[in-house]
Design brief:
With about 750 residues, the protein is of the alpha+beta class. Among the domains are: about 75-180, Beta-Lactamase (2-Layer Sandwich); about 340-490, Reverse transcriptase/Diguanylate cyclase domain (Alpha-Beta Plaits); about 500-760, TIM Barrel (Alpha-Beta Barrel). It has 21 helices and 27 strands. A hairpin with a 6-residue loop joins strand 11 and strand 12 (about 275-280). Helix 8 crosses helix 9, helix 9 runs antiparallel to helix 10 (about 415-430) and helix 12 (about 490-510) crosses helix 13 (about 550-560). It binds ligand C2E and magnesium ion (2 copies).
Length: about 750
């Protein structure tokens, strides 16, 4: 799998896990939050109910007092009593009610007042009373029973308030009955914590926030006179509470005390803007369900954190092992460079999409030798050095890898041949100077094949095809002595295509008889007429194209197919002789080329015998041309085989003598009948007189030698009259070359040289 895909998947997995983790935490948080809200709502409802109970109790007391006063007012008939009796009556009733004072004020504005200590004050003027009390009395004169605000009585130094109810004579209000009361009564009621279950307290406050009556059990400091003082209520909440109180509405808020929040409920009493300020002191946190939720939340959080840690740990482990796997899968363990797989991943898409690239295959010349002479460790060091040199030369976005052994591939964004050459030479010179095993005498030599994207003539370019091209160029670079940077080009491409064709079509071509027998005459120089012919193969493809031996014989030599082809050619040669005999014309000897591979075939000689028998022709009409190189190997075995072939009747000729490292020893040791002097001898003549002389001397000596060894001589490459004159003068036996004829189709040859009996 692609490394990037692997990484991407891993990242995706991690993101999923993180998202799920976060979502779970958020969901947990929301759940806890909503439960908390539910609990709070519960508390609020309870607070509301409790406060309402206080309010009812208080109001009941207030209205009971007013009721009492109303009853008294009805009872007193002022007109029937003198002032004294009235005062006594008041005193009497107050002894049951415990008001601080009781008073009656006639509508004239003057009244009578009795105290708890039975003192009686006469002629008290309403205007001299506390302003708010006076207002309440005046209200009573208007027929309104009322309660005054709370005020501080200067004489008693006590917080008090007063009631006032109208006193009627008939339908007419004649005065007001008033009573003052200490706020202690309220305090006592507020102190009763039964409704609150001892988990809170209630203050009475004015609509301006002033604390009118305090419960003893309180969180707010006793010195603080208003609920807005200090930081008990946050600033934003203060605003909200103020607005609610001003509008006479109920209001929930929180009170902060020593870092804890307590729920508060404010409820209007409906009298004088008085409010009940009820605080729940049992913490929300104290609630069992809340505690359960919190425990739950903590456990879930801990589990989640552990899970996350586990995932992170797992992820790191996975990443580590992934990295190791990736290293194994995509990197060359020796040099740390990319391996071919990874290189292919990086480069193949680019090769398909763009032509602006070059692909290079790099090799070390004689790496095998370096391995053998300097040892594996030194060779490995060299490879690591090559890797670091290449790494320092490639640029951003370019790639390289070590394919195998000393093979490196480089992908460059470069199409200019000169630039590529400069860059490669620069790499080479950094490698050249590397001293293997501190041996400065040995110079490492590199060579490379290059394929430039713009030179690739493909409809659907691919890395695979470019790789084939580059290997081809590398192969050429290996054999080239002058250039170590070799570019793949169209000619190479053609050769490559042909090689592919040859390799893949040879067997079918043999079956389809596409290999044709061509014959080139050998001239008998003394008789001045044709003395034989050489069989040369031509591959005429189905499309009519002629492929020459030089284009397929070397490959066939390599892949072994030469054995099949040569036997086929021997067969064709024998068949031709048979045809001539059958046609009643005198047959001429034919030569046929024999690959050295044949000599390693166990049944070679038997097969040859079988062909001769099959066509029933004299074997002496067939000359087998072998190459000099064959003699380099095992002369004894070769001679033994030659002897057996000669026994059958074949003549043996040595082809291309003088083209390679010819040795006179070969001539001495091999039992051959004919020597074919390679055309290089004739080619060398004509360059300079001195050179000509030397060549002629050598040729003459060789010819003399063959005569002494009882061999006939054939000179190849006779192209001109001068060539013929020369070989005649040297007393050679046969001449072969374009001067007489090019190789032609066997049928044409038969017509021209056999049937017509023509001679050139
Ligand atoms: P070869 O056996 O030395 O064949 C002579 C080659 O020289 C032939 O090339 C021929 O066309 C060419 N030649 C003849 N006269 C002249 C001349 O005056 N000037 C020049 N420049 N060339 C001349 P061809 O047919 O292309 O064959 C090349 C080689 O391929 C042969 O060299 C032979 O080694 C090999 N070959 C050809 N046919 C066969 C075959 O059936 N089996 C095997 N094993 N090898 C074959
Ligand atoms: Mg030949
Ligand atoms: Mg030859």
């Amino acid at each position: 799998m692609d490394e990037k895909i692997l990484q991407r998947r891993l990242k995706k997995l991690t993101i999923y896990v993180i998202i799920i983790g976060i979502a779970t935490i958020i969901a947990g948080g929301l759940m806890a939050e909503s439960s908390q809200r539910m609990i709070r709502e519960n508390i609020d409802i309870r607070l509301e109910n409790v406060t309402e109970q206080y309010r009812i109790n208080l109001n009941r007391r207030l209205y009971a007092d007013i009721q009492t006063l109303n009853t008294l007012a009805a009872f007193f008939s002022f007109s029937d009593m003198d002032t004294y009796s009235f005062a006594q009556g008041l005193l009497e009733s107050n002894s049951h009610n415990n008001y601080i004072r009781m008073a009656y004020y006639g509508r004239s504005g003057v009244g009578i007042r009795v105290m708890l200590d039975s003192r009686i004050e006469m002629d008290v003027e309403v205007d001299s009373l506390n302003e708010d009390v006076a207002k309440t009395i005046r209200g009573a004169w208007e027929g309104q029973a009322g309660i005054s605000r709370i005020y501080n009585d200067r004489n008693l130094d006590e917080e008090v308030f007063a009631y006032a109810v109208p006193v009627y004579a008939g339908d007419e209000v004649i005065g007001a009955l008033a009573a003052s009361l200490s706020t202690d009564v309220f305090e006592a009621m507020l102190e009763d914590k039964t409704p609150l279950n001892d988990q809170g307290y209630v203050h009475m406050v004015s609509d301006s926030g002033k604390i009118l009556i305090r419960s003893k059990d309180q969180l707010i400091d006793a010195e603080v006179s208003s609920i807005y003082d200090g930081d008990y209520i946050s600033d934003s909440e203060k605003e909200r509470v103020r607005a609610a109180l001003a509008a006479g509405q109920v209001c929930f808020t929180n009170l902060t005390y020593e870092g804890q929040e307590y729920p508060v409920y404010l409820e209007p009493m409906g009298i004088n803007g008085w409010y009940l300020f009820c605080v729940q002191t049992a913490h929300v946190e104290g609630n069992v369900i809340y505690r359960l939720i919190m425990v739950n939340r903590t456990v879930v959080s801990v589990i989640l954190i552990l899970l996350m840690l586990f995932i992170i740990f797992g992820y790191r482990m996975l990443r580590k092992s992934n990295k190791r796997l990736i290293r194994l899968a995509y990197y060359d363990p020796l040099t740390g460079a990319y391996n071919l797989d990874r290189f292919t991943q990086e480069v193949s898409g680019k090769v398909e999409d763009s032509r602006e690239y070059s692909l290079i295959a790099l090799n070390v010349r004689q790496f095998k030798f370096i391995n053998e002479i300097f040892g594996n460790r030194q060779a490995d060091r060299l490879l690591r050095h090559i890797k670091s040199v290449i790494a320092s030369h490639v640029q951003e976005g370019e790639y390289f890898c070590r394919g195998s052994a000393d093979m490196f591939y480089i992908f460059l964004w470069e199409t200019d041949r000169e630039r590529i050459k400069i860059r490669m030479e620069s790499i080479f010179s950094s490698i050249d100077s590397y001293a293997i095993s501190n041996n400065r005498d040995y110079h490492v030599q590199m060579y490379c094949g290059v394929v430039v994207g713009t030179d690739v003539d493909e409809d659907a370019p691919s890395l695979e095809k470019s790789m084939v091209h580059v290997m081809f160029a590398l192969d050429t670079a290996r054999t080239s002595a002058k250039d170590r940077v070799w570019f793949y080009d169209t000619r190479l491409h053609e050769d490559e295509k042909l090689e592919n064709y040859v390799g893949t079509h040879m067997r079918q071509a043999l079956e389809d008889k596409e290999f044709k027998l061509y014959l080139q005459p050998k001239m008998d120089l003394r008789a001045g007429k044709i003395g034989g012919a050489e069989a040369l193969v031509r591959w005429i493809t189905g499309s009519g194209r002629t492929i020459y031996p030089g284009q397929f014989i070397p490959l066939f030599e390599k892949n072994g197919f030469c054995v099949d082809l040569d036997m086929y050619m021997v067969d064709q040669v024998c068949r031709q002789i048979r045809e001539w005999i059958d046609a009643g014309v005198p047959p001429i000897p034919l030569s046929v080329n024999q690959s050295k591979l044949l000599f390693y075939e166990a049944d070679y000689i038997d097969n040859m015998k079988r062909i001769i028998q099959k066509y029933d022709i004299p074997a002496r009409l067939v000359t087998l041309e072998i190459l000099e190189g064959l003699a380099m190997e095992n002369v004894d075995v070769l001679n033994e085989k030659i002897a057996r072939l000669k026994e059958i009747g074949f003549r043996i000729s040595m082809d291309d003598f003088g083209s390679g490292y010819s040795s006179l020893n070969t001539l001495a040791s091999l039992k051959i009948d004919e020597l074919k002097l390679d055309r290089v001898f004739l080619m060398r003549i004509g360059s300079s007189r001195a050179e000509d002389m030397r060549q002629k001397v050598i040729m003459s000596e060789i010819v003399d030698l063959t005569k002494k060894l009882d061999m006939t001589t054939v000179v190849e490459g006779v192209e001109t009259q001068e060539n013929e004159d020369l070989i005649r003068k040297l007393d050679c036996d046969y001449g072969q070359g374009y001067y007489y004829s090019r190789p032609i189709r066997a049928e044409a040859f038969t017509e021209k040289y056999i049937l017509d009996g023509e001679e050139s």
